[in-house]
């Protein structure tokens, strides 16, 4: 298939683009490089450096079999402080993409959604039919796009799939996680191992969990990419499928830190800090629907594998994660 990957120079987008190229698809990456990296575009993919909101109509005019939409702002804290960036950068831009998809009759769309659409969970594990009550503008913006996609699928026959990620980890060879502002736990812990950060903060050690620290569901970025390839194959015209992607296993902050110590061989000091407002104690995905309907089978669910791949990527670049 001829596929457009928006945000394909970012972490998840670049890994998915690499998987698509390896699967024999004709891939075009569109990215403005505001947070992505030119060297993260896989060999064999065409690259268009442009603002998605401005370029979507012209680019899709060339005719594509599908779009995989990763381009977005994704910092929760920033979304609280500057919500206008998220309503404009995420929602308005995505609406322009949807309009371009409608105008040019692009038949398939796979959207990078998030577990942040659920907010504070009422039950664990979290299923797709759980109430969607996001607690920050980032999650709210992604939920708004999900809702828009549902209406476009129903009205215009688009075959659409939204994939709601939990905590993405790991790397795919030379494609890995590198952000100017890092907020994710595993890269932060690995920065301590690499010597670019003195210690890692543990936000709360008195949560109602086995070891007192927050528990999160981590999914390997390669397993995530596999789900996108399957979503393209199983998308149905006029239908919008929404699927959680997680390993179904929770790892605590202490377990993550200990896994990083074992993989890197570094002591990694951890400092207790107060709880952060809005942090749920436990977030674990129910991914049964993705397994049953998409045929998805995550196989890289071991924490040491995810940490090891992320560490290998960091070491190969010889710079902070």
From TrEMBL:
Domain of life: Bacteria
Cofactor(s) this protein cannot do without: NAD(+)
Protein name: UDP-glucose 4-epimerase
Family label: Belongs to the NAD(P)-dependent epimerase/dehydratase family.
Entries under SUPFAM superfamilies matching the protein: NAD(P)-binding Rossmann-fold domains (SSF51735)
Subunit structure: Homodimer.
Pfam families: Epimerase
E.C. no: 5.1.3.2
Domain NAD-dependent epimerase/dehydratase: 4-246
Functional pathway: Carbohydrate metabolism; galactose metabolism
Keyword tRNA-binding: no
Residues that span the membrane, as ranges: none
Keyword vocabulary terms for this entry: Carbohydrate metabolism, Isomerase, NAD
GO MF annotation list: UDP-glucose 4-epimerase activity
Catalytic activity entry: UDP-alpha-D-glucose = UDP-alpha-D-galactose
């Amino acid at each position: 298939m001829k596929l457009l990957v928006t945000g394909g120079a970012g972490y998840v987008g670049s890994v998915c683009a690499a998987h698509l190229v390896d699967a024999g698809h004709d891939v075009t990456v569109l990215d403005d490089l505001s947070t992505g990296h030119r060297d993260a575009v896989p060999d064999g993919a065409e690259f268009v450096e442009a603002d998605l909101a401005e370029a979507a109509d012209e680019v899709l005019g060339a005719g594509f079999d599908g779009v995989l939409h990763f381009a977005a702002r994704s910092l929760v804290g920033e979304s609280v402080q500057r919500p206008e960036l998220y309503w404009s950068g995420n929602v308005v831009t995505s609406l322009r993409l949807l309009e371009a998809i409608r105008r040019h009759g692009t038949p398939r769309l796979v959207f990078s959604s998030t577990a942040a659409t659920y907010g504070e969970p009422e039950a664990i594990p979290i299923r797709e039919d759980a109430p969607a009550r996001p607690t920050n503008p980032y999650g709210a913006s992604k939920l708004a796009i999900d809702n828009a996609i549902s209406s476009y699928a129903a009205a215009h026959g688009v075959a659409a799939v939204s994939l709601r990620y939990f905590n993405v980890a790991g790397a795919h060879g030379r494609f890995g996680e590198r952000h100017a502002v890092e907020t994710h736990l595993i890269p932060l812990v690995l920065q301590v191992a690499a010597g670019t950060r003195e210690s890692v903060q543990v936000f709360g050690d008195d949560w109602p969990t086995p070891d007192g620290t927050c528990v999160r569901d981590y999914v390997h970025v390669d397993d995530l990419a596999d789900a996108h390839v399957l979503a393209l194959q199983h998308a149905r015209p006029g239908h919008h499928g929404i699927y959680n992607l997680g390993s179904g296993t929770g790892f605590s902050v202490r377990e993550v830190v200990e896994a990083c110590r074992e993989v890197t061989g570094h002591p990694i000091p951890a400092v207790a800090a107060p709880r952060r407002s809005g942090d749920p104690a436990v977030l674990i995905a129910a991914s049964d629907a993705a397994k049953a309907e998409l045929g998805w089978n995550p196989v890289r669910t071991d924490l040491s594998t995810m940490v090891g791949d992320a560490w290998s990527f960091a070491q190969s670049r010889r710079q902070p994660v």
